[in-house]
Write a structure and sequence with these properties.
Blueprint (H helix, E strand, L loop, with lengths): L11 E2 L8 E5 L9 H10 L4 E6 L5 H6 L5 H4 L3 H20 L2 H4 L3 E5 L6 H14 L17 E4 L5 H10 L5 E2 L13 H6 L2
Parallel strand pairs: 2-3, 3-4, 4-5, 5-6
Antiparallel strand pairs: 1-2
Helix pairs in contact: 4-6
């Protein structure tokens, strides 16, 4: 039957399918990607695979200014969406890996929008840091080995990006995306999938 979980977090939604639980979490506002209590509650609440969408909506410009990150550079040219969201996705993936969330909650599946953002392209850099920095060594495996722990969507706006994902994570880890409601959304998202 369906899994009912009474959590005080609005990000947890009722399951759409028996044994599944959706946990969406926005990465903006400098908060942890997935709070420990949310992940623990989600894992305890279901008997099947648990799916979490990591969505980095419009980085918190005001909070970032206070932290000295100078995000006002992202306000021009629609860069909060074009670059900010994909980089937020990559930061979220790095936190999930280096924070040990993927190791502690093996049934929790994460979807990285924006074709994984910058993460799939920079995972080699994460690996190099893991090889050279002692503070990153507690990680149980090479960061590269976590590529297939995530699902990715097709919203990369480039055939090369989709080809890269197909080669490195496989078609079984890629789902169709549209970026619907944003001005840059695919008009024909099914065509993107069917041409690959």
């Amino acid at each position: 039957g369906e899994v009912g979980v009474d959590l005080p977090h609005p990000e947890v939604r009722p399951p759409r399918e028996p044994g599944h639980l959706e946990v969406g979490h926005e990465t903006a506002e400098g908060q942890e990607v997935v709070a420990e209590d949310r992940a623990q509650a989600a894992e305890e609440g279901g008997d099947g695979r648990l799916v979490a969408l990591v969505e980095g909506l419009q980085p918190d410009l005001e909070g970032a200014v206070e932290r000295g990150a100078a995000p006002e550079r992202l306000e021009r040219f629609y860069l909060t969406n074009l670059l900010g969201n994909p980089f937020e996705t990559a930061v979220a993936a790095a936190h999930l890996i280096f924070g040990g969330v993927l190791d502690r909650f093996p049934r929790l599946e994460f979807v990285l929008p924006h074709a994984g953002g910058a993460f799939p392209w920079l995972v080699g850099r994460l690996r190099r840091g893991w090889e050279k920095r002692q503070d990153l060594r507690p990680l149980s495996a090479d960061p590269l080995s976590y590529l297939r722990r995530f699902y990715y969507d097709t919203i990369g706006y480039s055939a090369d990006v989709l080809d890269y994902l197909l080669r490195h994570v496989g078609a079984d880890r890629i789902m169709m995306g549209s970026d619907y409601c944003f001005p840059i959304a695919y008009e024909q998202p099914v065509a993107i999938v069917s041409t690959h």
